[in-house]
Amino acid sequence: MTLKSAYTARELLAILSARQLKDGQVVFAGVGIPLLAATLAQRLHCPGLTILFEGGVIGALIEPGKLPPSTNDQRCTQRANMVLSSADVLLLLQRGYIDVGFMGGAQIDQYGNLNSSFIGDPKKPTTRLPGTGGGNDISSLTNMIVAMQHEKRRFVEQVDFITSPGWLRGRDTRRESGLPAGGMFRVVTDLAVFGFDEETRRMKPLALNPGVTREQVQDNTGFKLEFTHDTGVTEPPTEHELSLLRTLDPERLFIA
Amino acid sequence: MTLKSAYTARELLAILSARQLKDGQVVFAGVGIPLLAATLAQRLHCPGLTILFEGGVIGALIEPGKLPPSTNDQRCTQRANMVLSSADVLLLLQRGYIDVGFMGGAQIDQYGNLNSSFIGDPKKPTTRLPGTGGGNDISSLTNMIVAMQHEKRRFVEQVDFITSPGWLRGRDTRRESGLPAGGMFRVVTDLAVFGFDEETRRMKPLALNPGVTREQVQDNTGFKLEFTHDTGVTEPPTEHELSLLRTLDPERLFIA
Amino acid sequence: MSEVIPYSKLRKDIAQRDRSLREKVVSLEEAASFVHDGDSVGVGGSTMSRTPMGLIWALIRAKRKKLSVSRCIVSSDGDLLFGSGACERITTSWFSQGILWGVSKVMRHYAETGKARYDEWSHMALGMRFRAGAMGIPFMPIRSMLGSDVLQLRPEAKEMDCPFTGEKLLLVPALNPDVALIHVQRCDPYGNAQIDGLQFMDMDLAMAANKVILTTERIITNDQIRRAPDQTKIPFFTVDAVVELPFGCAPHECYGVYEPMMRHMQYYVDLVNKDPVKGMQEYLERFVYGPKSWTEFLDLIGLDDLLVAARAGKSIYDT
Amino acid sequence: MSEVIPYSKLRKDIAQRDRSLREKVVSLEEAASFVHDGDSVGVGGSTMSRTPMGLIWALIRAKRKKLSVSRCIVSSDGDLLFGSGACERITTSWFSQGILWGVSKVMRHYAETGKARYDEWSHMALGMRFRAGAMGIPFMPIRSMLGSDVLQLRPEAKEMDCPFTGEKLLLVPALNPDVALIHVQRCDPYGNAQIDGLQFMDMDLAMAANKVILTTERIITNDQIRRAPDQTKIPFFTVDAVVELPFGCAPHECYGVYEPMMRHMQYYVDLVNKDPVKGMQEYLERFVYGPKSWTEFLDLIGLDDLLVAARAGKSIYDT
Predict the structure, then answer these.
(1) Domains defined along chain D, listed by start
(2) How large is the ipTM?
């Protein structure tokens, strides 16, 4: 608690996200917090972790201070093991070579569905958002970790538009729709870490971030959360985690 | 006629085959006489002709005396414009980039169907032949020129097994089977050059080779041929054609 | 564009093309004349990478109209195509100026008002549409998009029960653009092209399109191509025109040659996102219609910025 | 092998594989232990090119049985697999020792008597079966084989009317071998492989298989791989074992390294075609079971012939 002001919300997000990854995993990462977190994990507990980018990159090693502006830039290929066509790197997801998809999110609902296409009615939207990119493919074909800011307008009961499928309408609806593999695994926010109920497939809090109350989390969430005695509290970022993270983004492009 | 003994049957075959090609064409060639003929054509009237090989080669330039032993050897890539995967070079046929497929044949029938799989009943064959290779794909997907020895047992009414489809059972049967493009165009033998009737799709003699009679051709053919007043006589090989051809195969591997 | 072209027409179109080994070098202006009003246009590269910006710039200057554009991921190229009135529909998986700048106000202006269409497919689905087109088949089966609302908006795709496994599949329709615009690091005068680094969907796009226009940083000899045939990524017979155009992706990047000119991009984004109509108009007047040539456009970006971008571009090889 | 593996099983199998970045270098004998009796085995290269002969040699020595082998075009490798009793079924498009030698008497002996099966597909159809396997889809639509008797013998393929165009198509089933054997010019200890020149179907095969064993002319460092990532053809996480095996395709060729050892091939063909049973037995005794190591086998081919083959192999770069 005394360290509370010693790190930003985004730093916390990056560090808690990094902790979700396991050594040896093959991770399909988006830019921003996901890439930062995956790179951080590589330098902490996951030396054998492989990062893939949608632009067609396997096993990139991101240099501190040289974070690529998108997953389709040459910087993504820095010291990579392989560069292949973007269609072919996405097909690796379909074939099953990828353990984890790791993305940011604009809007999520209780079943982990993500919206990055439309705010309002798709036929006459208030806002046309950029769209899915590889998000739909990644979330359709592998296990997902999403890192995002926790705000009530972002955590809604039902997204306006399912761009990237989570558990759809819960229970078996994902499998029944033709998506037998993968699914939403973790949501990491600046307030808490969430999993999904094995049966109902509804989002459930696993652990509160340091210094955060259950009420705070519920107040910032547009649907009912069920806290149980299992709901834990996350260890705060360590000095080592923080200093490594700050080395990776010295200009604080993603962690400010 | 006085030159008759001045060239071998295979030399004639190669030269008459070369004459079937047009400048600027993209030609999928088999090894042996087809490759020799296509290379000869390049050095005669087709400087802008492109040769493709099944192994994954676009635009090879075969060096005299260095004819590759198959379409899958490194020699096929000599000074080529592109090397790609063998599946992808075959897909060029399906997409339609290839003007002519150019192969040898073991057994052909009146509708230009080729057999390179079984002699006798496929369930209990007298001889199991090597099989289709790319032959089925080439003849299914583009216009075919076949160069082969003219023998009665090779020119049969109906092949034992359709490995590479010509016009199938004639008339519209090829299109009706799902093969709307390509088809057997020319058969070049040591006795004559054949085309196919636009309607019935039966093989018909277009021109006799120098010094060959209609009777000779019919006697060596297992089905009835219709000669008309249009049936012409081919010009004999020129000195230029012969000397160039012999430069290409100095060891006489394919022209003896 | 959402309709699958019948195989008979695909074959007829390709049979009529001159696929002989011949020189195809033309000026940027001539190249633009290969694209006609109403054409479906496939654009190579992705986001801010290897975008054929010179060709897009030339098409806008040539006043092309009613183009229907497809590209895996669309950046400021899409803004310009909508904003100039050259394009009525963009088929892509993601459309903004770049992740750094949030949502494109130009895209929003056109898509939200219905002045132009943004048809959204998943990234892989669009790749498989080009691939089916490249392979000469009418569709490709895939396992994504199912269950999502992205699919709800795309009746052009069809669900199917697999005749082998009974599994649910999505069949996405082949996409065979009338013309593809692709920028490469180098090619010969026939159009045999080498692409370094990220290839995106350009090989499939070249095979799928019925016409290909290449711009290239540098024209090399056919001898150079033939010395390393396994480095050729696009074969000459798919190509109809070749334009030598250094910095032909500016202000976007070209792998190993230059990174994006970020100062110009920032200026552009600020300008058009402040007012997607007037800002765009100002940009077009000053940077597209104004300069007499591509080199004059580059001069407006500024030599300083070009050199910085070129230095960063080559640094990918400093390993 | 003709049955399509359900997606759930494909995914389960791949999830259980260790896909981490780790060293995988083993001996040839250890590598052979990755293949089990009854496995379906995909073999890389084509005809006499980049055939993983060392691995096949090791599998025969290890007395593997009931293998079901698939390869785009099969040469003397298929003879040995049938003749040694290691393999019961070969799925390919063409099977003989090489065009130079006519029909393989070994293939004939086994195929005509029903002692083993040769399942014939068109070359492209087999390629599309591997590609569907590589892409994680249950089939690929194609436009060849239709109307032919090759199709009549392959009820595993299904005809279909295209839901987009009404055209007749053939759906060929995905082929996902239990294990793939692939020889490359160089790879790192993790299995990141570079393949020069002709690639055949090896990239699709590596992606499609549930296990990949690489033999390589030379192991290079991961640093060398990372210096030119766009030259990597097979990514490490598809690979389960790496064997450094110079002349690992002998007596076949390895692009840019050696051409086939033709004297040995001629000797072999004469021997087995004279008597496909006894001739084969003699060959196996002398060249497969006899030598103590791969190097000793190479020694039996003879250093003279290896040097001639190596000189010819490198000459492809003399342009």
Answers:
(1) 10-124+175-318 (3.40.1080.10), 139-173 (no CATH)
(2) 0.97
